[in-house]
């Protein structure tokens, strides 16, 4: 149903899809669904309406990255998979006359741009992931306490990001001029206490 | 989950220290995710650069920006040590492979006697390796060197322009197009 709503003509619906998908992702335990979510994410990233794009960039993408990085082979399944898809699309563009599929070249070009956009948005998450996975001696102990990823931390990110988005839309003065908030992940102790 | 800027700075500093202390290979051996960047992801991105049509400036720029973001994210010391050689290898090997290719071509097809056969004017397509090394120039400039001080960038551009014009290391005048493209989009 969500996949059908991505193409809705009303941008409010598409924005709601992005935010609700973020919520949905946090309840999914099966990380094998990562490619399905990734596909929807890439489709939403190519939305031309700024509110949909903002919701996607500030709510869905951070939540998806947190969720996906908790699964196995995040770098291979999400990042390398997307980059390899780019390679295929670029190659199919070169051999477009041979493929001779109506409209496929234009679709491929749009897809290439949105996958690249998604990778750009994800870059800081990828770098953070790589550093987090570094040797334990690499960071100070304080940093290592930030590691645990649990459903609660993902949900709190969804809520916080959605709240930020709502404030931003209403143009509340106190939030103007600030960047999107960094997700606040509770320490292991705090998470257990809750 | 994002790390705070403080920890990112700390991590970059430690990577830089590992480069200085020459402990980076040992670190990479035990750090599969960082190793993944230089063995899987960067080569895959460079493959894209090589196969790109230069007309696709937006796509090309996006890939260079991505490369720049990776170099910036992991720190310049690490990028200098591990990422630059991957780009440089394609630029340098283009020359090397082209030499080998021409040599093997000469062996299999000895040069024709010009008095017996009319000269062929059909332009031959450039060897793929030459194309790839020319296409890698904008990536090196915009994805990596642009993070360096202005003087280094200007020196590289000047030297490369001169090098291509005089045919240094088998560069050809047609490669100037890639260099012009690289400088046009510099800092954008």
- In whole angstroms, the N-to-C terminal distance of chain B is 29 Å
The average pLDDT value of chain A, as a whole number, equals: 75
Shape of chain B: elongated
Number of domain modules of chain A:
1
Number of domain modules of chain B: 1
Measured by residues with Cβ under 8 Å of the partner chain's Cβ, the largest interface is:
A-B, 45 and 36 residues
Describe this protein's structure.
The complex is a heterodimer of chains A (194) and B (188). Chain A has 194 residues and is mostly helical. Chain A has one domain. Helices cover 70% and strands 0% of the residues of chain A. Chain A has 10 helices and no strands. In chain A, helix 2 runs parallel beside helix 4, helix 3 packs antiparallel against helix 4 and helix 3 crosses helix 7. The longest helix of chain A is centred in the middle third of the chain and has 29 residues. Chain B is an all-alpha fold and 188 residues long. Chain B has one domain. The radius of gyration of chain B is 20 Å and the shape is elongated. The chains are: A mainly alpha (194), B mainly alpha (188). The interface between A and B is large, with 45 and 36 residues.
